[in-house]
Design brief:
By secondary structure, this protein is an all-alpha fold. It is rod-shaped and about 125 Å long. It contains 13 helices and 2 strands, in the order ααααααααααβααβα. The chain has 3 domains: 93 residues, no CATH class; 76 residues; 74 residues, LysM domain (Membrane-bound Lytic Murein Transglycosylase D, Chain A). The chain starts with a helix and ends with a helix. Helix 1 packs parallel to helix 4, helix 7 packs antiparallel against helix 9 and helix 7 runs parallel beside helix 10.
Amino acid sequence: MKLMFTIFLLGSIFFSGCAANKDLTKEDKAFRDAEVLIAEAKTVITEAKKAGAEKYAKDLLDSAESKLVVAEDALAKEDLEVAVTFAGKSLENAKAAKAKTLADLALEKAEAEVKAARELGAEKHATDLFMRAFKDLLSAKKIYSGKDYPGVLEPAKKAYEEAAEARKLCEIIKKSETLIAEAKQDIQEAVKAGAKRHAPELLKSAEDNLVKAVAAYDEKDYIKAIDYAGKASDDAKAAKSACVAASVGKYTVKSGDNLWNIAKDGKVLDDPFLWPLIYKSNRELIKDPNWIFPAQEFELPPFFDDKTKKDAVGDAFKYKGK
């Protein structure tokens, strides 16, 4: 009888101990759960702040931080149910703050790129790309209005990439237009400098490259247009330089020469009416334009513009009239 009583007593103690251990294990688990949630909430709050949540999702961020304070206080008081509940809510708000911030940033980036593309003329020059970007941006904004912040990221990213591609295409088109205009200007300046006379091959090369540049532009091969326009400018500038070098030269008077015939020479001024330019450039040697002498060495006039030529022709007629 005593033996049975002893066995019964030991069994009761054993089962009571197991129940106590079970309750202790549940309490330990709740405590660990609260600690994990609090630590995770702190991490996400930090990430949200780094992303810019204080600007884009301040209410959500403030809510996350205030709930975190409650959770930590409850944990310190071992009120585990409250600690777990508020830590979970803090984490939820922190994640929402981070997601909203990232969505706002993605939308801002996409909107800025779409605007930049439009300002460069993407609606005209890159219509398909621009319209796709615009539609994806609208889609992202619609998703945002439904507060599906993670869902905003993909269409906003697509809108940005499409708009960026459209903008780059417009920049290439703009560059080709600018270079073609510059090449035309360079060719005009080379012609004025006398390239037809002093650098005909360079001038022809410049004009041929300009024709190719315009053709490539019309065919929407803007890279080739840029290449040919650059070559046209280079050739035109080289032609102009050759003209300047040729014009700053010397001419030695031969027997039978006069200023009219010297100016008429295609290798000199190619226009007899420009003889006053030679006269004015050599006043120390030429006392009277009717009298020049063999072996005299005249400096040929440097590069001159249309006004100078017009004035020289006018002087020639005035002198003739005398």
